[in-house]
Amino acid sequence: MTELNVEQVRGVLSAACQAIYDAREALSEADRQIGDGDHGIGMGRGFKAAREAVDSTELTTVGDAFKAVGSAVMRTSGGASGAVFGTMFRGPAKVLKTETLDGEGLARALEESAAQVQLRGKAKPGDKTMLDALVPAGIAAREAAESGGDVVAVAKAAAAAAHEGCEATINMKATIGKAKSLGDRSLGYRDPGAISVTILLDTIAEGIEAA
Ligand code: ADP
Ligand code: MG
Q1: Residues of the chain with pLDDT under 50
Q2: Over the range 97-131, which residues count as b (16 or more CB within 10 Å of their CB) and which as e?
Q3: Ligand nearest to the CA of 79
Q4: Cα-Cα end-to-end distance for the chain
Q5: Which ligand is closest in space to the CA of residue 193?
Q6: Is the CB of 136 under 6 A from ligand 1?
Q7: What pLDDT is attached to residue 178?
């Protein structure tokens, strides 16, 4: 697989949205440890709406599919995750004005996604947020693309780096968001948003490989 067409991208993103909806109980459980226990509620609501949007929207470019997901999440999730995960998908829409998605495009999308979430949310790597999964995913995707990896290789590299980054949040103290007030008590748990990033990138990689 060297590139996906717009309809294949629609299918991949639709499956990723469904995976978040299916994981909503576990995501709220993770948020009960270090937050207010609602991460799965907001994400479930947002990505259900996002799946409906991406399934039904008319698509011309790959970016249109990302925008449909991001806009629906932003509109319906609420909480920090609405803005953060909405931006994760809307952010890269403008660098995806093509009718196909290849490894280079996916790497650019993930880099742009990480950059836009940092701009909007003012968090940085090490703060124990979803950025600790998303930023390394963007870097790994770029490395895979630069070394000639196809879109499957780029997606797999991104997902693997997101997992590593998510595991690393266990040893981080939260310095932003609702977990901030816990201080040392936020140690020992994965960041819920970072878990969401691994679910999204895992499903995207599986979908791309199967496309
Ligand atoms: P809330 O914090 O409003 O209850 P959620 O529980 O849905 O929202 O989402 C919490 C997750 O949002 C955190 O685990 C973290 O990954 C992410 N998050 C919070 N603030 C930021 C931020 N400024 N930048 C990036 N991610 C953030
Ligand atoms: Mg919460």
Answers
A1: none
A2: eeebbbbbbbbbbbbbbbebbbeebebebebbbbb
A3: 1
A4: 8
A5: 1
A6: no
A7: 79
Around ion ligand 2, residues with a beta carbon closer than 5 Å are 31, 35-36, 38-39
Residue 80 alpha carbon to ligand 2 centre in Å = 7
Confidence (pLDDT) at 148? 95
**Protein residue closest via CA to atom 6 of ligand 1:** 39
What pLDDT is stored for residue 204 in this prediction? 98
Pick the CATH number of 3-210 from 1.10.1040.10, 3.50.50.60, 1.25.40.340, 3.20.20.80: 1.25.40.340
CA distance 166 to 16: 18
Q: Which residue's alpha carbon is at the smallest distance from atom 5 of ligand 1?
A: 39
pLDDT at residue number 34? 92
14-38 pLDDT, tens digit per residue, is 999 999 999 999 999 999 999 899 9
Cβ–ligand 1 distance for 42 under 6 Å, the answer yes
Global model pTM greater than 0.90: yes
201 closest CA partner among 95, 28, 85:
85
How many C-beta atoms surround the C-beta of residue 178 within 10 A?
Answer: 18
* Domain boundaries, given as residue ranges, for the chain: 3-210
- Ligand at minimal distance from the CA of 81 is 1
